[in-house]
Write a structure and sequence with these properties.
Blueprint (H helix, E strand, L loop, with lengths): L2 H13 L2 H8 L3 H15 L4 E3 L4 E3 L1 H24 L8 E7 L5 H14 L3 E7 L2 H9 L5 E5 L7 E17 L19 E5 L2 H11 L7 E6 L3 H8 L4 E5 L11 E5 L5 E9 L6 H16 L1
Helix pairs in contact: 1-2, 1-4, 5-9
């Protein structure tokens, strides 16, 4: 399986047509069709559904598209790193993490590094812990930022200062808004909007003294912003970290912490035995210095 053929495959998936893809790639249609037939023969899988007007991917084709894109991204990343001058601090840094006010420290270091090294470019991926771990493991991220509870035994990491407070996002005029903190009993039978991460559900299970099924979970999310809109529309109570959603006097929403309190630490991690690019190593050094000054 050649990188060139994977690029052909991705072009067909994007254009939804072999003839259009052949025009984009500047090769003949029969040549492209033959390459795709050989690719299907190699995997012994049908990758395309060839319709009258367009080509769509089979289930196996969709899976290959995901891996092919990751392979192409890694190849391009390697080419950029290897083509740089040895003493040239430039290139890309890939960081993934969930939404949190604690990310401000990381953003501060990124902003500082951009001023010092303008040829360094950052790529920030937002996702839940599993999304970040998958990309970190596959080499698509240099660093992943994780919140407790999390198992980081397979990574090298250090802990960032501060903790995130878990609580309930609700409408200001909701009856529960009169309470300074929210107990498990107050949430009984209430429609709950919760992160779809199992590890978060386990943490909530410990908080309520049982399992998450004691909560009336109506909606799950991987990032909170759209769920905040659902709360505004009266769709439930969202369990999330404090200060992710900006709240002020004009906001229709408010935040109340849980009682007993749930506070989660934050960590930045990277693959063990990972050989950093020069720019990634510099970023980590600057971040550690910033942490020591906090």
């Amino acid at each position: 399986m050649e990188i060139r053929v994977l690029q052909y495959f991705l072009t067909i998936a994007r254009e939804e047509s072999i003839s259009k893809a052949a025009e984009v790639l500047h090769i003949t249609q029969p040549t492209l069709s033959r390459q795709m037939k050989e690719l299907e023969d190699e995997f012994q899988k049908q990758l395309f559904i060839r319709g009258n007007r367009k080509i769509t991917l089979t289930k196996d084709g969709i899976l290959l598209k995901q891996y092919a894109q990751e392979i192409i991204n890694l190849t391009q990343k390697a080419e950029r790193e290897l083509s740089k001058e040895q003493d040239d601090l430039s290139g890309d840094i890939y960081i993934g993490g969930g939404e949190s006010a604690s990310m401000r420290l990381v953003m501060r270091v990124i902003a500082s590094m951009q001023k010092i090294y303008p040829q360094v470019h950052f790529h920030i991926f937002s996702g839940n812990a599993q999304d970040v771990a998958d990309k970190l493991d596959s080499g698509l991220l240099d660093f992943g930022i994780f919140f407790d509870p999390v198992n980081l035994s397979q990574y090298d990491y250090f802990t960032l200062p501060g903790k995130e407070t878990m609580g309930v996002l609700m409408k200001k005029d909701d009856p529960l808004a009169k309470y300074e903190a929210i107990t498990p009993q107050l949430l009984k039978d209430k429609p709950i909007i919760l992160s779809d991460q199992n590890i978060v559900k386990n943490e909530l299970a410990g908080w309520i003294g049982g399992n998450e099924r004691k909560l009336n979970i109506k909606v799950t999310y991987n990032l909170i912003n759209n769920s905040a809109l659902l709360v505004e529309e009266g769709g439930g109570y969202a369990l999330t970290f404090e200060n992710i959603i900006h709240l002020d006097e004009k906001s229709t929403l408010c935040f109340r912490p849980l009682l007993p309190r749930l506070e989660d630490g934050i960590h930045i991690a990277w693959k063990k035995y990972h050989v950093f690019s020069k720019q990634a190593e510099t970023f980590l050094e600057l971040l550690k210095k910033e942490v020591n000054h906090v």
